Amino acid sequence: GENVEQHPSTLSVQEGDSAVIKCTYSDSASNYFPWYKQELGKRPQLIIDIRSNVGEKKDQRIAVTLNKTAKHFSLHITETQPEDSAVYFCAAVPGGGADGLTFGKGTHLIIQP
Amino acid sequence: DTAVSQTPKYLVTQMGNDKSIKCEQNLGHDTMYWYKQDSKKFLKIMFSYNNKELIINETVPNRFSPKSPDKAHLNLHINSLELGDSAVYFCASSQGLAGTYAYFGPGTRLTVT
Questions:
Q1: Residue B35 with chain A: CB contacts under 8 Å
Q2: What are the phi and psi torsion angles at B64 (to 5°)?
Q3: Chain B CB contacts of A102 below 8 Å
Q4: Which residue, B60, B94, B88, B58, is CA-closest to B74?
Q5: Average pLDDT for A57-86
Q6: pLDDT tens, residue by residue, A87-97
Q7: Which of B40, B48, B100 sits opposite A32 (nearest CB)?
Q8: How many CA atoms lie within 13 A of A24 on its CB side?
């Protein structure tokens, strides 16, 4: 089955700086890669996603890049703000999709004021 | 208007009991899921259910059984609860089997004593 590795497990950055979270996946047939943000005690919420036929996608301060050859994808957050503090999960949908989302282990992003 | 709802929000019970968690979605999605988030925040798929087709993660004990009375509901029944079942259980839904744009419910925190 699919295996998703996520790094780092904790990331602390100064407010206003950029943050980068990296993930790798194992199933070359995976074709959809979402990122979820989970605030303490809340549900995971989809913040951005990318499909395998696209190399980069941007939405305001967040962007995701995908390298299919290397089987890795990354989340970039620029001009970080206190409300960006949360746990971020990357995920992949294996080929066929019927197995649901396979998640990475999460990155706790801490924005220092 | 809540897209994916779960009841109860908190569930405290003793070992050996049987309990159920209910999930409803009003997004018109045709695929629903149950995910388990353990104390280390790891999110893992338990089941996906689409048009009466049930796909089970092979690591899920058969004490767990999903039941879907219709396309908008997917309930989770757990028999003979064990201490290790303590976790947050999230229901989610998406359109189609590809898992895209999966929307999560608020979660049910299950504590087994």
A1: 100-101
A2: -95, 130
A3: 45
A4: B94
A5: 97
A6: 999 999 876 66
A7: B100
A8: 7
